Amino acid sequence: MATPQLRRDGRRVSAAYAASKVPEKITVYFWIIKILTTAMGEALADFLALRYGPIITGLAGTVVFALALVLQFRARRYRVWVYWFAVVMVAVWGTMVADGLHIELHVPYAVSTTVFALCLAVIFAVWYAAERTLSIHSITTPRREMFYWATVIATFALGTALGDLTATTLGLGFLASGIMFTVVIAIPAVAYWKLRMNAILAFWFAYVVTRPLGASYADWLGVSPAHGGVGLGRGLVALILTVFIVGFVGYLAVTRKDIEPRVAAVPRRAPAPGQHRR
């Protein structure tokens, strides 16, 4: 039987919860890094594909993506650098998949967006049927971790296709798309705090939107003014975002703000001679 531990606030947590494989506290830093990774993944994937070609880039990206997931699954508990490396590679690989379907196979963004949305719905349905929860705070078993990363991959692919759909197919442009998704991502935040929206629904709602939000701004900063962008270049944008990601992840590694504080359980004192246990 798992031995319960005590947090500093006196609440008990199980040993299984102590072995969570994802951040235990969803703070503002989680969302900042998440948006930065989506933007960086978009910029880096596009930069590499244009420079080295989609086939070589896709193969190399798949290898590094697989390595990142192996490291994550082999970790016995949440490791901040390992976890966020996996998220970064999902962002890069998800962009490659979504763009590859459109560029190489000529699949319209409207179709790929619909397909990825259906895939995400199926993953959620199977996950809930198997585990009876979709909470990020329940990722304490290998099976739940597999469901979690399958969901993350689907959200990144969906978000990439959705962002390109609004920016190009619907003609909004990258900046307008970024502004639109900035407004959209505020919906679950306001609904959660003001209307008591279900926490799990609010989390995954926001999680999906972070992808087109970050990718739209990354494209706007990277592409040339002729294509409605600032013209910094995708490589430079990816480098700048990587510096910020490393800085924020390093901050979490030092401060441990995304980990629940724990103290050892205090053993009960033995009764004094002549006293009886109650």
How is this structure best described in words?
- With 278 residues, the protein is an all-alpha fold.
- The radius of gyration is 21 Å and the shape is globular.
- The longest helix has 28 residues, at 142-169.
- A hairpin with a 5-residue loop joins strand 1 and strand 2 (12-13).
- Helix 3 runs antiparallel to helix 4 (80-103).
- Strands 1-2 form a two-stranded antiparallel ribbon.
- The protein is 69% helix and 1% strand.
- The chain has one domain (23-255).
- The chain has helices at 15-18, 28-52, 54-74, 80-103, 109-131, 142-169, 174-195, 199-222, 234-255; strands at residues 5-6, 12-13.
- The chain is built from 9 helices and 2 strands.
- Residues 1-18 have low confidence and may be disordered.
Outline of this structure?
Helix content is 69%, strand content 1%. The protein is an all-alpha fold and 278 residues long. The two termini are 24 Å apart.
Write the layout of secondary structure elements.
Layout: E1 5-6, E2 12-13, H1 15-18, H2 28-52, H3 54-74, H4 80-103, H5 109-131, H6 142-169, H7 174-195, H8 199-222, H9 234-255
Antiparallel strand pairs: 1-2
Helix pairs in contact: 2-3, 2-4, 2-8, 2-9, 3-4, 4-6, 5-6, 6-7, 6-8, 7-8, 8-9
**Strand order in the sheet with the most strands:** 1-2
Helix content: 55-70%
> Domains counted in the coordinates: how many?
1
Detail the poorly predicted runs.
Answer: 1-18
Category from helices, strands and their pairing = mainly alpha
**Overall 3D form:** globular
The H-and-E topology, N to C, reads as EEHHHHHHHHH
Characterize the largest beta sheet: strand count, sense, and whether it forms a barrel. Answer: 2 strands, antiparallel
Question: Terminal Cα separation, in Å?
Answer: 24 Å
DSSP strand (E) fraction?
under 5%
What's the mean pLDDT score? 87
Structure summary, number of beta strands: 2
